[in-house]
């Protein structure tokens, strides 16, 4: 019984060490504020035409490289990768970043 307990403790210690040693994901640049995209809520959720304000905000976020940060964040990935988000980005004349390119 003691060997089993020692093995369990060792496995737990190794698991904790792996979790502690794993680097946290890098935070998005401070300019990447998803709240600034509220003007695009209608187009992204309902497929309506984007407003000038929406496109302006998208261009600002695109310049900062925010789309890829959003795409890798589980809280925002489903929105930025949605069909309506792609249509909105395209309607604003913004090229898709390579991280959002559809997979073959």
From TrEMBL:
Q: Where is the signal peptide?
A: 1-21
Keywords, comma-separated and alphabetical: Lipid-binding, Signal, Transport
- Specify the superkingdom: Eukaryota
- What does the similarity note say? Belongs to the plant LTP family. B11E subfamily.
Task: Please cite one Gene Ontology biological process associated with this protein.
Answer: lipid transport
> What's the protein here called?
Bifunctional inhibitor/plant lipid transfer protein/seed storage helical domain-containing protein
User: Which CDD domains does the record associate with it?
Assistant: nsLTP2
- Pfam name, any one: LTP_2
What molecular function does GO assign, one term? lipid binding
Residue ranges annotated for the Bifunctional inhibitor/plant lipid transfer protein/seed storage helical domain, each copy included: 14-95
